[in-house]
């Protein structure tokens, strides 16, 4: 099956494991194996096209999210250019780098996962909420909430794995793992991008939670820039199938 024309070798190595939303199920060996009963290839192609549209719309939402962050910064009296230059989560001294989980980027990703739980719990406490937002989202928020939930616990392990690879390379003075480091960091960055886009959709919907939503947006933006600083080659990494 692996030799079948049309399959993209290794596409599943740097994907986000969200097969229900993947635009390449028809070309992924991992998906074929996991689903066992292969759908007709036409059905998969239609499914992929729908998902491609979903992610194109999310890409547009990310552009809007970035604009929103700059607008908010201006409104709060911050110079948007200063905001972009704001200190990123910096790396600790070498001696502290025994464990990737101690890295500030990893800590920030873990903190983010907790912020999400707190935000949803606080929204459920609002007087006009009759049902939990997570289990009964309004249709307009269903997809952004799916995005937030899918990546909530995805970003942290990807960042830890990328940092572990980087630390291992430093210890051995090797570079053979550097591609994997960059590929893993890129997947984490994409997850952060998409999550930022999703939060920007939620932002105007809950004015009474504006401060906490804004805190999440700024935290994610800072984490995004931090990961880009720690892994400057990550954005340019070409993932099989997804990036060309
Ligand atoms: S490439 Fe797509 S279909 Fe394959 S494992 Fe990843 S998310 Fe699932």
Describe this structure in words.
60% of the residues lie in helices and 0% in strands. The chain has 244 residues and is mainly alpha-helical. The longest helix has 35 residues, at 41-75. The site of iron/sulfur cluster has 12 residues, from helix 1.
Strand content: under 5%
Bound molecules: iron/sulfur cluster
The number of E-state strands comes to: 0
The span between the termini is 22 Å
Helix coverage percent of residues?
55-70%
The helix/strand class is: mainly alpha
The general outline is globular
Q: Which series of helices and strands comes N to C?
A: HHHHHHHH
Show unreliable segments: none
What are the defining features of this structure?
244 residues; binds iron/sulfur cluster; 60% helix; 8 helices; mainly alpha
Task: Summarize the helices and strands and which ones pair or pack.
Layout: H1 29-35, H2 41-75, H3 80-85, H4 104-124, H5 139-152, H6 155-172, H7 178-202, H8 210-230
The protein binds iron/sulfur cluster.
Structure in a nutshell:
The protein is mostly helical and 244 residues long.
């Amino acid at each position: 099956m692996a030799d079948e024309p049309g399959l993209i070798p290794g596409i599943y190595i740097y994907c986000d494991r969200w097969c229900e939303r993947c635009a390449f199920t028809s070309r992924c060996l991992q998906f074929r194996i996991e689903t066992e009963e292969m759908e007709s290839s036409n059905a998969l192609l239609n499914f992929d096209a729908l998902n491609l549209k979903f992610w194109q719309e999310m890409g547009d939402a990310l552009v809007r999210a970035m604009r929103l962050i700059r607008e908010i910064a201006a409104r709060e009296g911050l110079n948007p250019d200063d905001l972009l230059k704001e200190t990123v989560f910096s790396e600790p001294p070498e001696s502290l780098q025994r464990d990737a989980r101690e890295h500030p980027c990893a800590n920030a990703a873990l903190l983010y996962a907790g912020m999400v739980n707190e935000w949803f719990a606080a929204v459920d406490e609002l007087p006009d909420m009759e049902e939990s937002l997570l289990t009964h989202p309004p249709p307009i928020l269903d997809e952004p909430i799916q995005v937030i939930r899918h990546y909530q616990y995805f970003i942290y392990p990807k960042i830890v794995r990328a940092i572990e690879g980087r630390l291992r390379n430093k210890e051995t003075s090797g570079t053979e793992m550097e591609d994997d480091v960059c590929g893993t960091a890129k997947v984490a960055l994409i997850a952060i991008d998409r999550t930022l886009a999703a939060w920007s959709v939620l932002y105007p919907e809950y004015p009474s939670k504006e401060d906490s939503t804004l805190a999440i947006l700024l935290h994610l933006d800072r984490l995004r820039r931090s990961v880009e600083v720690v892994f400057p080659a990550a954005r340019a990494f070409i993932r099989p199938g997804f990036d060309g």
